Amino acid sequence: MKALLVGECRDGKLLEYSYELFGFASQLGAETAMVLVGNDAALPSYGGTVYLAEAGKYGEYNPDLHKRLVQAAVEREKPDYVVFLHTSYGWDLAPRVAALLKAPQASEVVALAEGGFERPCCSQKMRQVVKPVGSPVVLTLQGGAFPALVPGGTPQKQALDAEGEGRTEFLGYEAAVRKGVDLTRAEIIVSAGRGVGKKENLPVIAELAKALGGEVGASRPVVDSGWMDAGAQVGVTGQTVSPKLYVACGISGAIQHLAGMKKSGFIVAINKDKDAPIGEVADVLVVADVMQFVPALTAKLAK
Amino acid sequence: MKILVCVKQVPDMESRFRPDAAGVWYAETDLAFRVNEYDEYAIEQAVLLKEQLGGEPEITLLSVGPDRVVEAIKKGLAMGADRAVHVRDPESHLKDPFQIASIIAAYAKGEEFDLIFTGMQSLDRGSTQVGVAVAEALGYACATTVVAFEYADGTVTVERELEGGVKGTVRLKAPALITCQLGLNQPRYPTLPNIMKAKKKEVNVVPVEQLLQQEARLVLAQFSAPAKKGGGVILEGDVADQVDRLIGILKDKTAVLR
Ligand SMILES: Cc1cc2nc3c(=O)[nH]c(=O)nc-3n(C[C@H](O)[C@H](O)[C@H](O)COP(=O)(O)OP(=O)(O)OC[C@H]3O[C@@H](n4cnc5c(N)ncnc54)[C@H](O)[C@@H]3O)c2cc1C
Q1: Alpha-carbon distance A64 to A19, whole Å?
Q2: CA A189 to chain centroid
Q3: ipTM of the predicted structure?
Q4: CA A142 to CA A255: how far, in whole Å?
Q5: Does residue A128 contact residue B223 with C-beta atoms inside 8 Å?
Q6: Does A18 contact B at CB distance below 8 Å?
Q7: For residue B167, what is the nearest residue in chain A, using CA coordinates?
Q8: How far apart are CA B61 and CA A272, in angstroms?
């Protein structure tokens, strides 16, 4: 069994989480080769074959061409699996590769299952097992679901080329704008989620943060709705925090939010839904309405 | 200019999900359905563009699914779409993302849309495949996970959201397909007059058999709740009591309360 792993480069560097692909391949028990649009400096620490296409020539984001580059590597390796990470690069490119190869695709895989793959559904509240029909099978892996594995060694590099032009033109990166408090240093964070209901309710969260001597954070919809500044956002596209105490108020626990806070020392979640996925990481799940529970907690702490 | 917006109806995610009789997807009893959140950004972006271009573009909304999806279609029409297509499929939940994309592409093929908007994913299935697969089937340029959109003279400039808050700016030429991400815009609430107007708009019903020629590439085998990792304490019941118990635990297990 063979897996072709699709590595990722950004700004000329191999993204660390590319090593999760090797972790997955080892669980699958598959032989591996990697394909990468990058440069020599970005080659992984891995003793097998790496098909390297020059990012200088093909760009770091040029999906129409990257698709053909992956196809060229597939033709040489004849893999059973073509494996991406479920990232902005992977979920963009994988369906294009699947279309080209007429291959089944399972997205955001979190585990191997008998004859298939387990993946989250219903906003992470449930799991489904899907079985691909045909081969090769295209997969994207949920970030962090498979432990990173650095195989070590020096790759045998094979140059990779493809013809043609892309239909999208990449104009460049724009760095994250961060203003406000540096939540990465906060010891206590009380975060507001959509379950807080409306902007007018936010002082309730701020008062709890004050009573605990901490800072206020937020989930993404709170920021997108303009209730709070982008600097407060915790998650994959926000800040990664690891306070001693994280209090999630009305936050469902989407994987993208968890990515930013699950390393917190102690996690308290307040949610009226007992089945909310935040329960998976919370040390304490308080099943309650935030607007009833939080003021009551603040009042008691103030005594 | 012709714009297509693809809309899916999904259950409220705060629901309790139970397996259906076949054990492969959720049972629909007791579920409240609404427009997939990401698709609301797609509808809004199409309507904003129509406004920007002085009302010229015609916006067609398309939804594949059973009869209940008419509610989602009505909302889209009330938000400002001009007409709709309901691809009637009582078994759409059993189709894989590739088949759903094939259905949409089969409809769109003859229509020559200049722009297609979809959500970046659905909240229930979450495959992130359908939009891209439609673009591939039609040979359209495509950008995903879009958080900013501009259009001028047949050229689309978008910002794609990447990890860590970084964005990538991408330019593409129509015909193009855009998958919409949270933060792209603030979807409007349909006003009462617009809800009334929407009632008169055309909804063309097409049976799915007319559009689907593809076999599934993924078979649904199982649907279940994730194995509970456990460990966490769950506090239920009276609020005052919950407060006391939480404070007790925090004093016990953390150094943050003295
Ligand atoms: C590419 C990508 C990147 C993303 N990046 C991020 C990111 O960096 N950070 C982030 O947070 N999200 C991010 N998201 C969004 C993420 O998927 C979720 O949509 C988001 O985290 C949900 O926020 P929420 O939990 O506040 O809202 P919801 O998911 O709507 O959850 C609200 C919760 O509040 C509960 N609730 C409702 N009312 C009450 C009440 N009165 N009392 C108590 N509980 C109540 C509900 O039961 C529910 O669990 C990203 C998504 C994508 C696709």
Answers
A1: 24
A2: 22
A3: 0.95
A4: 9
A5: yes
A6: no
A7: A174
A8: 35
Instruction: Report the pLDDT averaged over residues A136-145.
Output: 97
Among candidate residues A254, A227, A232, A221, the one with its CA nearest the CA of residue A186: A232
Q: What is the pLDDT of residue B257?
A: 83
Residue pair A209/A154 in contact (Cβ under 8 Å)? The answer is: no
- Tokens 């609020």 appear where? B239
Q: How far apart are CA A98 and CA B63, in angstroms?
A: 23
> What's the rounded Cα separation, in Å, for the pair A284 and A226?
29
Whole-number average pLDDT of chain B: 96
d(CA A270, CA A284) in angstroms, rounded, equals 8
Question: Residue A155: is the preceding peptide bond cis (ω within 30°)?
Answer: no
Burial B200-227 (b: 16+ CB within 10 A, else e): ebeeeebebeebbebebbbbbbbbeeee
DSSP codes of every residue in A216-272: EEE-HHHHHTTSS-GGGBBSTTSB----SEEEEES----HHHHHHHTT-SEEEEEES
**Gap between the Cα atoms of A221 and B186, Å rounded:** 11
Contact in structure between B196 and B155 (CB atoms under 8 Å): no
Distance CA A258, CA A278 (A): 8
Residues A259/A235, Cβ–Cβ less than 8 Å: yes
Mean pLDDT of chain A: 96
Residue to mutate, A121, A124, A194, ligand 1, most ligand atoms under 8 Å from C-beta: A194
- Residue-wise pLDDT for B229-251, tens only, equals 767 999 999 999 999 999 999 99
Q: How many residues are given for chain A? A: 303
Rounded-to-integer distance, Cα B77 and Cα B213, Å: 29
pTM of the predicted structure, to 2 decimals: 0.94
Q: Which helix (H) or strand (E) holds A156?
A: strand A156-159
Cα angle value A213/A219/A221 (rounded, 5°): 140
DSSP at A153: S
From residue A52, alpha-carbon distances to A41, A58, A91 in Å are 11, 11, 20
Q: At what angle do helices A202-212 and A290-302 cross, to 10 degrees?
A: 30
Cα distance from A49 to chain B (closest Cα, Å)? 27
Answer yes or no: is the C-beta of A258 below 6 A from any ligand 1 atom.
Answer: no
